[in-house]
Amino acid sequence: MPKRHTLDVVIIGAGVVGAACAYYAGRAGLAVAVVDRGSVAGGTTGAGEGNLLVSDKEAGPELDLALLSTRLWRDLARELPPETEYEPKGGLVVAPDETALRALRTFAEGQRSAGVEAREIPADALHDLEPHLAPGLAGGFHYPQDAQLQPARAAAQLLRAAAESGAEIRLGTEVTEVLTGPGGAVRGVRTPGGDLLAPALVNAAGTWGGRIAALAGTRLPVLPRRGFVLVTEPLPRVVRHKVYAADYIADVASGSAALQSSPVVEGTPSGPVLIGATRERVGFERSLSTEALRRLAVQAAALFPVLADVRVIRAYHGFRPYLPDHLPAIGPDPRVPGLHHACGHEGAGIGLAPATGALIAAGLTGSQPALDTGPFDPARFTADQRTGDAA
Q: Are strands 186-191 and 194-197 parallel, antiparallel or unpaired?
């Protein structure tokens, strides 16, 4: 399909959230350009594990967003090429003792009321689901709606589909200025290669979302939260589900800046086992943390003793875009007409991307959103003023 020269929207960010925004905006009939100073999935998306989780979210707005995304990812898995490696394999959350199990039971009851499938697994049945789990666990919960995919490939395929619908994809192109007109309304962006004019701009810049907001003359307090992942040598399928310990849920909800770690273990179609997850707020510090890696290795081997003698072939890390209330910013920014935000998803951006893209497309076209967007309102942080300060 030939490219259209009149743009309806410019999307900043070629990660999975920006790609999903481009995909759904294109399906809604909008002329789209995606701009990224780097490559496809060059930021947080490329450093993700590909988790599509409902199991770690309590009843509330984020869980509603996750359930919508779960349905949309299933549809996308049928539409996109198999290279996305979508696996609806389910998740298993395990409790080390009766206290943790009771907490999981209460957590699951709230989730069920929101539409989550959660089945309690007694201790003597855990090994039917995961034969290599450590003995002595008190029990757990199985979440069949949890899934996994290869995040960089998913972003690439969404962008490819958007391009086939006419979207312009401009990689290696940095936005240096947000252009505004009378009343401060968005009218495009400036790049070293020239201006891209459009009446709408989507900030899907992930961890750098605060900087894009500042360019537009507003504020979004996005901060980076670093996380590491270990990758083992290829193995037979020794881990069947997404498996993690109950304390991972508390780590996700925590606002602590200190290093936190809890075992999250999953196999992949190509053989390696992925081991996470750590969280810490250290800015954009990219140095290797041997303590973080040591914790991951020890905790994973405690959960799956079969991994104790397995070789780790590499480790990688990235930065989750963190907002203080642990909810993403999705939708129009009333302080800057034409500016829409789609960032701040922390570690759930890959899972929440389709719902985010669909909500952004609804906002751009004035159509009815699939769920209430009020809890994700970008103006909830500094609704009383515009400022040029970066987050």
A: antiparallel
C-alpha 63/C-alpha 115 separation (Å) is: 9
Q: What's the DSSP call for residue 19?
A: H
Do 224 and 284 form a contact (C-beta atoms < 8 A)? yes
Identify the residue whose tokens are 């936190």.
Answer: 260
What whole-number distance in Å separates Cα of residue 349 and Cα of residue 44?
Answer: 9
Separation between Cα atoms, residue 301 and residue 292, nearest integer Å: 14
Which tens digit of pLDDT belongs to each residue from 83-139? 999 999 999 999 999 999 999 999 999 999 999 999 999 999 999 999 999 999 999
The single-letter code of the amino acid at 159 is: L
Distance of alpha carbon 178 from alpha carbon 191, whole angstroms:
9
Query: Tokens 């935000």 belong to which residue?
Result: 341
Q: How many residues does the chain have?
A: 391
Q: Which residue type does 106 have?
A: T
Task: Determine contact, residues 213/231, Cβ cutoff 8 Å.
Answer: no
Contact call for residues 263 and 244 (beta carbons, < 8 A): yes
At 284, list the tokens. Answer: 């954009």
Model confidence over 23-53: pLDDT tens digits?
A: 999 999 999 999 999 999 999 999 988 999 9
CB 18 within 8 A of CB 11: yes
One DSSP character per residue, 21-50 reads: HHHHHHHTT--EEEEESS-TT-STGGG---
Task: Please report where in the chains the tokens 């701040």 appear, as a residue.
Answer: 344
Q: Rounded CA gap, 322 and 313, in Å?
A: 29
